[in-house]
Give the backbone structure.
Amino acid sequence: MENKHIYQDWLTLSQLADNAITIACFNEVEKRYTQEDRYYHTLIHIKDLFDHIKRASVSKLEKQLLAHVALFHDVIYNSRTTDNEFQSAEFATPWLKQLGLEKTHQEIIYKIILATSNHISSNPLTQLFLDMDLSILGASPKKYKEYSDVIRKEHLQIPLLLYKQGRKRFLKQMLQRTHIFQTRAYQTSYDVQARINIQEELKTL
């Protein structure tokens, strides 16, 4: 296990004990997030989400659920396919069962992971996670540029023209929203900068 600090964050947030099952689970997850073709969807992204969860004004149970969502939501990531979210949710299910989570909690986690496919929800907890997941859009211009560069690296197999078309479509969809972020806290903290960042990237596409 090379990412012990991230493992410990997961245990602390999820209130799980360090044991053979948690180690086996994290080792399997770690293998996925450290694949060579990943540049943004890595354990660094998961660590960033854990930091957001630590600061969130939610209950201890909600933090537990969000910690599992964060760990598993990008565990399957193939830029050539369109069902990564479904596959990630399916991957998580047997592990959540082995970790001893209640069925209702497993179902909540499953639904939130699925919602990352279009980043829209009417559920407050899901909205919060989706905002955390998209918070990079409202990062500093320097950090946003690093993000947009590595996203392109994850899609190098796609011809540049097609990539630009798809990227423009995604960015314009974000701008068309009344608010890019769905929770008041993230709207206040990130919305203005996100629009600036997106508009600047669109000029380069």
